[in-house]
Amino acid sequence: MSGLSVIEPATEQVLAEVPRAGVEETDAAVARAKAAYPAWRAVAPVDRAALLHSLAAHVAERHEELSRIEARNVGKPIADARAEIEMVVECFRYYAGAPERLLGQTIPVAGGVDMTFREPLGVVGLIVPWNFPLTIASWKVAPALAAGNTIVLKPAELTPLSAIELERIAVEAGLPEGVLNVVVGPGSVCGRRLVEHPDVAKIAFTGSTEVGRGIAAGAAATIKRVTLELGGKSANLVFADADIAAAAAAAPLAVFGNAGQDCCARSRILVERAALDEFMDALRGEVEGIRVGDPLDEETQMGPLVSAGQREQVASYVPDDAPVAIRGSAPDGPGYWYPPTVLAPVANDDRAAAEEIFGPVACVIPFEGEEEAVRLANETIYGLSGSVWTGDGARALRVARAVETGVVSINSNTSVRVSTPFGGFRQSGVGRELGPDALHHYTEVKNVFYATEEG
Ligand code: NDP
């Protein structure tokens, strides 16, 4: 295996050197997972539940260490990293309840008894991105294990460190060897091999819509199951009857959280024209006050971007003649820094408003009335997330139902909870993660008929 230098985005220094896997190592990981599968699926539900609780407890014990790994490797504020590792623990705990609740049905039929079982798929390939490395991994690992599958997990090459730790922690927690295998290598080699591998039953992927398209096409060759959690360009709809101060206070971190590298980023802020001036005035103070700096500083709210390439891509959306209305601060010197930036006013079909920037750049798009708000919100290839801010309850529900996204929040900018389904409409993806729905994507339904008539 060749070597991979993992870079710390806040310093541009090498944080760790790890071996880089290729096709051979990926095949070996699949073989280990395949060998471990019969015994793992046969583990009694109560024992599988106990092992998931043990995994949660072992991650919780390493909470601070994992938070620091994530903060340094991704460049995210330590406070955010701690919250994310708490979510990882919560996710394993939540799905620890699942093995004993994978219920089937009995269906009335003539001549016998008909029953259904939810059976595991086998070896599943989990391909995760660099923006929330261990969190997004846990959304896939926890339900996959709970349902009785074995796993090959491929983290992004930029951020493999927490996944490498998770593989060790799983063994410490008592999971049998081979149940959870991590492969660190390029997506175009290891990820692709997982997609093509005949012994991999399913791919669960989070990443760009472009790579997701390739995975869906590649998976077709072996009729693999796929769950795709892809890009977004979510709308934050602010009506004039909303609490404008509250909407403006919440809007910045809904875009600039994780330095904008968030598929749920509310990067299109649609504001009713009657409230535009008031909103922009309130927004200015909030954006200029965002503390951008060292991810390990307890006060930091936004860190650097993950890589030089990502910063270059983000900057391409803000050419010299861009309508920059508000600009926050960013440190000088080493690190892939980019200041929080608000473009206004922007048309919904401008490149910055139409494409996923995946950086701290928000577009403010004025609208007149509810009909235009919904039309603009839906004029996108994406459909992941979104928010509605209004004081009118009926309007809140009307608009929430009309916006074509997988998750919507009212007078709030949250998208993700361990116990509720998460995923996209349209080109934001296929399938749902988290909540009760995720389990269905890691199981097949088997129908069994048992004849009971005599003779
Ligand atoms: P990618 O979609 O390229 O990467 C996501 C994961 O897929 C990584 O583990 C990557 O591996 C792997 N991968 C890459 N190519 C293949 C392939 N051909 N077959 C199988 N797996 C593959 O996202 P990027 O990291 O390059 O980010 C690019 C853009 O994607 C961002 O700017 C953003 O717009 C979007 N994105 C969206 C995310 C979301 O949460 N929805 C998350 C991340 C990105 P490796 O990186 O190791 O090569």
Categorize the overall geometry. globular
Q: Structural class given helices, strands, pairing? A: alpha/beta
Using only C-alpha atoms, the radius of gyration works out to 23 Å
Low-confidence stretches: none
Attached small molecules: NADPH dihydro-nicotinamide-adenine-dinucleotide phosphate
Helix fraction bin: 25-40%
Tell me about the largest β-sheet. 7 strands, mixed
Q: How widely separated are the two ends?
A: 64 Å
Identify the strand order in the major beta sheet: 12-13-14-11-10-15-16
The count of strands amounts to 18
Mean pLDDT across the residues is 98
Number of helices: 15
> Which percent range describes the beta-strand content?
15-25%
Give structural attributes.
single chain; alpha/beta; six-stranded mixed sheet; 15 helices; 18 strands; globular; binds NADPH dihydro-nicotinamide-adenine-dinucleotide phosphate
